[in-house]
């Protein structure tokens, strides 16, 4: 372990501890030459990465554990969303389909809409709007809005693992951490 710490190098900029005073973090299960990354490099990478890559490591599939700390209100800014015209069209269609699905379901429950048509619309909504990729996309947009008011930091994977090892083993901590992320 001591050799591994003396050989820390950032997987993005390839800088080492000797090159700069930037702090390192290990955000996922990756080992070897892609084990460490500078906090600042990770932040810059998140600013340019797609929605899925901001949620989990593409190499080892580990979900990043992010912490939000409220910034001073003077530091708040309007985020750069990076949404093009096609993205705006997708968001508009998703909102319209969601509104139609909810209003159609209410109409079906009241007896003013047909059940077959509304079930077809609900299944289309589930397939196209409520997909995992779309939830990642909207979660990413929400995180960008949140980053305007909050400082986002990534928890170190090794520290999480050490804490997890000290906790009781009769609990499923992956499910608990996932529900904590969903409840944030």
What do you see in this structure?
The protein is mainly α. The protein folds into two domains: 2-65 and 155-183, Herpes Virus-1, CATH 3.30.40; 72-150, no CATH class. The protein contains eight helices and four strands, in the order H-E-E-H-H-E-H-H-H-E-H-H. The protein has helices at residues 2-6, 39-48, 51-55, 85-110, 115-128, 132-149, 157-166, 173-183, and strands spanning 24-25, 37-38, 66-70, 150-154. Strands 1-2 form a two-stranded antiparallel sheet. Helix 4 packs antiparallel against helix 5 (115-128). Residues 2-67 form the RING-CH-type domain. It comes from Caenorhabditis nigoni. It holds the Pfam family RINGv. This is E3 ubiquitin-protein ligase MARCHF5. One of its GO terms (molecular function) is zinc ion binding.
Spell the H/E element sequence: HEEHHEHHHEHH
| CATH architecture label name of the largest domain | 2-Layer Sandwich
Structural class by secondary-structure content:
mainly alpha
Shape: elongated
Helix-residue proportion: 40-55%
> What's the CATH C level of the largest domain?
Alpha Beta
Indicate the mean pLDDT.
Answer: 79
Radius of gyration based on Cα positions? 21 Å
Give a count of the beta strands, DSSP E runs of length 2 or more: 4
Major sheet strand order? 1-2
pLDDT < 50 stretches: none
- Count of domains: 2
Q: β content, as a range?
A: 5-15%
Note the total helix count. Answer: 8
């Amino acid at each position: 372990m001591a050799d591994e710490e003396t050989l820390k190098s950032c997987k993005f900029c390839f800088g080492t501890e000797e090159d700069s005073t930037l702090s390192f973090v290990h955000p996922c299960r990756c080992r070897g030459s892609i084990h460490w990354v500078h906090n600042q490099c990770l932040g810059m990478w998140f600013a340019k990465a797609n929605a899925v890559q901001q949620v989990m490591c593409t190499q080892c599939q580990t979900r990043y554990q992010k912490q939000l700390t409220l910034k001073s209100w003077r530091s708040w800014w309007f985020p750069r969303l990076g949404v093009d015209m096609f993205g705006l069209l997708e968001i508009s269609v998703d909102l319209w389909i969601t509104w139609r699905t909810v209003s159609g379901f209410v109409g079906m429950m009241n007896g003013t809409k047909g059940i077959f048509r509304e079930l077809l619309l609900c299944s289309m909504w589930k397939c196209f709007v409520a997909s995992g990729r779309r939830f990642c996309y909207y979660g990413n947009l929400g995180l960008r809005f949140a980053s305007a008011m909050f400082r986002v930091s990534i928890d170190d994977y090794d520290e999480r693992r050490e804490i997890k090892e000290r906790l009781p083993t009769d609990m499923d901590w992956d499910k608990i951490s996932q529900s904590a992320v969903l409840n944030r």
